[in-house]
Amino acid sequence: MRLKLYSLLLVSATLLFGLSFQSCNDSAPKAKKTTSKVTNSKKMLPAAKYWAAAKKNLGISQKQVDGIKSINAKYGKKINALKKAKKWDGKANLKTQKTTISARSNELKKLLGGKFQPYQKFMSKHGIKQPAKKAPKKAGKKKPQAKKPGAKKPIKKKKTAVKKK
To answer: What is the pLDDT of residue 38?
Structure first.
């Protein structure tokens, strides 16, 4: 009787451990994370070349180009002000984003007329290359001067303590 009990216990334990190890091994291997950068498909052009290409490809006048620039500057300032006030990002400010962007689109539609759709396609393919921003200089700190070849370092005198009697 004891032998049957032990053998039954041994078989059930073997099956239990065997199934638990097998189920872990049969699971699908985890997907490896790939760290590839998403590349920007826009062809970035300097501002002068961008606007020249826009005039050539879209057949718009210089007056329309100036109008586009002023509209973009106007709404760019509004968006930057909203970002500084923290009223631009997030789902809570989605209505503000939509109204601002749609107002800009409506002004551009009025300016460009039937060339608005081609302009949007052009914008999605090309971007304006922004000039590199220079870091602001910190006041009060001097730049280290480059050493001249053959120049000697100035000798600094060490301060010695004077003992009082």
So the answer is: 45
* Spatial CA neighbour of 83 closest among 93, 70, 73, 98: 93
The answer for 150, left when phi > 0, alpha when psi is -120 to 50, beta otherwise, is left
* Number of separate domains in the chain: 1
Digit-coded pLDDT (tens) for 58-117: 999 999 999 999 999 999 999 999 999 998 898 888 999 999 999 999 999 999 999 999
Cβ–Cβ < 8 Å for 43, 36: no
| 165 belongs to a structural domain | no
Residue 86: domain span: 64-123
- How confident is the model at residue 5, as a pLDDT? 59
Q: How far apart, in whole angstroms, are the C-alpha atoms of residue 111 and residue 60?
A: 10
Residue 88 burial by CB count (10 A; 0-12/13-18/19+): exposed, middle or buried?
Answer: middle
Residue 6 lies in a domain: no
Residue 94 lies in a domain: yes
Take residue 39 and report the two structure tokens written for it. 């590349």
The model's pTM is 0.54
